[in-house]
Amino acid sequence: MIKSRLKTFTAVLLLLFLFSYSLQELSLIYPSYFPKPVYDFKKSPLKPSTVELGRKLFYDPILSRNNTISCSTCHLSNQAFSHAGNHLSKGIEDGIGDRNSPAIFNLAWQKTFMWDGSVVNIDVQALAPINHPKEMGEDINIAVRRINKSKEYKTLFYRSFGDSLATSERLMKALSQFQLTIVSAYSKYDKVKQGKAKFNQSEKKGYQLFKQNCSSCHKEPLFSTYEFANNGLSYNSELKDYGKWNKTFEPEDKMIFKIPSLRNLAYTYPYMHDGRFKTLYEVLEHYEKGIEKSPTLAKQLQKPIIFNLKEKEDLLAFLAALNDSVLVSNAEYQKIK
């Protein structure tokens, strides 16, 4: 009788612990010079149990049709959550996606997602790759049914939501919660901003060149406005990709793509929406002599941006100071072992 009561009491304590854990809230950690996040954390606060669940789901191929592809397949933590070396995303059964896999950090400061901005809420963004026939190729409802058969996930969902039932909404929420915690703010640039380091002469000159030529689209400290622009790329006839126009069919959206951050460029090559440029030298060459004129071309690019060889070296030295080695080695972002 005593043993039975003790077991019951222990079980009740465990349930109370799990429930209290699910109610805890996390604060997003970022530097004081960062702007306020656009994601509404008051409406949807971070919870450690949900972040843990999202981290588990992010690395689990259970979300793909044939259990071979996870979110992390195209967003590797040691590559600033990009798919370095691959022009386009790769999916199930050797499928090739439509665009280069974007790096996913500092998402809390972004209002729209995907290269064309077709997703306006990070809490549902994961539906796009899960449903894409060449990426994860799965019906979200089937994935949810599969998760509900897992004892491990039953426990994790209970910790996060107070009961063990997995739903598509909860699954999406968990994935977004984990991704929202991925903050890149530990580069040399950040140390300089905090007074903990100084730029060398080349970086200092490159910083001035950046401010004169690049900062209107790649605004500090996130190094993007996360708006959209036509940066003069030629149309990729193989992919038939006109950017936002593919969704809106509005003339003003032709060749308009989301402006990526310049942080972590060492880890996120190749560059542009279709990964056409292997190196940053190729990128600079594009802005010097590759810009294609069109009615939607960004006003900042009506004239080519020309640097001499020394200026290019200085600019690239500054861009290297935006690489965040802490981000790519952070165990909290890696697969749970």
Automatic annotation (TrEMBL):
<feature type="domain" description="Cytochrome c">
    <location>
        <begin position="201"/>
        <end position="323"/>
    </location>
</feature>
<keyword id="KW-0560">Oxidoreductase</keyword>
<dbReference type="InterPro" id="IPR004852">
    <property type="entry name" value="Di-haem_cyt_c_peroxidsae"/>
</dbReference>
<dbReference type="InterPro" id="IPR036909">
    <property type="entry name" value="Cyt_c-like_dom_sf"/>
</dbReference>
<keyword id="KW-0732">Signal</keyword>
<dbReference type="InterPro" id="IPR026259">
    <property type="entry name" value="MauG/Cytc_peroxidase"/>
</dbReference>
<keyword id="KW-0349">Heme</keyword>
<keyword id="KW-0408">Iron</keyword>
<dbReference type="InterPro" id="IPR051395">
    <property type="entry name" value="Cytochrome_c_Peroxidase/MauG"/>
</dbReference>
<dbReference type="Pfam" id="PF03150">
    <property type="entry name" value="CCP_MauG"/>
</dbReference>
<protein>
    <submittedName>
        <fullName>C-type cytochrome</fullName>
    </submittedName>
</protein>
<keyword id="KW-0479">Metal-binding</keyword>
<keyword id="KW-0574">Periplasm</keyword>
<dbReference type="InterPro" id="IPR009056">
    <property type="entry name" value="Cyt_c-like_dom"/>
</dbReference>
<dbReference type="Pfam" id="PF00034">
    <property type="entry name" value="Cytochrom_C"/>
</dbReference>
<feature type="domain" description="Cytochrome c">
    <location>
        <begin position="49"/>
        <end position="191"/>
    </location>
</feature>
